Amino acid sequence: MKTIFVTDLDGTLLDKTYDYKPVEKFIRKLKAKKVDVVFSSSKTLEEQEYYREKLRIKDPFIVEIGSAIFIPRDFFSHIYPRTRSVREYHVIEYGLRIEVIEKLLKDVENVYNVSLKRFTKMTPHEISEVTGLPLKMAEWARKRMYSEVIVKGFPNEDEIKEILRRYFHLNVFTSERLITVVGRADKGVALRILENLYYEEYESIEIIAAGDGEADIPMILAADLGVYVSNGKRIPNVLKSKKNVVIVNNREELIEFMLRYLSSSRK
């Protein structure tokens, strides 16, 4: 059986320092067990490429909350539909382009007479101050292709989020400090698309998905086995008592659970 580990980054594999080094050994162990490691994050192409290079990962990855799947050329032996090719990747796009999202947000700003603090309009220094990202990563975070990130705390916040969902048909995901706006994409849909490609390649597969936030819930529920990393937060009701969902407290428990599960399932 082919195992695919689909994982969020911030709050799941990465802590507030954004340092990849604490998970290097874990990733090496997964690769030694022939497990594919698929990032599925709100992070951009450039941000994810940095961690892929540092951790020597060559598998597909999902950017900007399920908006697009980047697949290294010749990764799959079969032919599959794709939107376009970018450098060494074939790309399956599912979300709206940033140009469309920006126009919709501009309409909202005009109607409500509000100026939203949006990543694409902020400087790297401003993004770094809000997120704690190093300046280089903050610059990469600005280069959004399919989503916009808005800093919370603006007037009529709840009403504007509802307008974006109900009338503009956008998906809106909220974290502690930020709001991410995407098209009708989510991590669960992207996982299902990638799952189908893997089924074309292998007779039997198992998908394990791990995440810690609202945007990760569709992915966790869509996986054969989901792992929710609580990080001290309240556990979402939709994940409680689910037979195929495991709750862990932090990254260390996630790593421990994954290695134990993989060892026991392969005996």
Give the helix tally.
9
Please state the CA-atom Rg, rounded to the nearest Å. Answer: 18 Å
Describe the sheet with the most strands: 5 strands, parallel
The figure for the number of domains is 2
How would you explain this protein's 3D organization?
The strands form three sheets. A five-stranded parallel sheet has the order 2-1-10-11-12, with helices on both faces. It has a four-stranded antiparallel sheet with strand order 3-4-6-5, covered by helices on one side. Strands 7-9-8 form a three-stranded antiparallel sheet, with helices on one face. The chain has nine helices and twelve strands. The protein has 267 residues and is α/β, with parallel strands linked by helices. The protein is globular. It has two domains: 2-95 and 186-265, HAD superfamily/HAD-like (Rossmann fold, 3-Layer(aba) Sandwich), CATH 3.40.50; 98-182, Putative mannosyl-3-phosphoglycerate phosphatase, domain 2 (Threonyl-tRNA Synthetase, Chain A, domain 2, 2-Layer Sandwich). The model has no long low-confidence stretch (mean pLDDT 96). Helix 4 packs across helix 5 (135-142). Strand 5 (84-86) and strand 6 form a beta hairpin.
Question: What are its keywords?
Answer:
9 helices; Threonyl-tRNA Synthetase, Chain A, domain 2; about 35% helix; about 270 residues; alpha/beta; 2 domains; Rossmann fold; single chain; 12 strands; globular
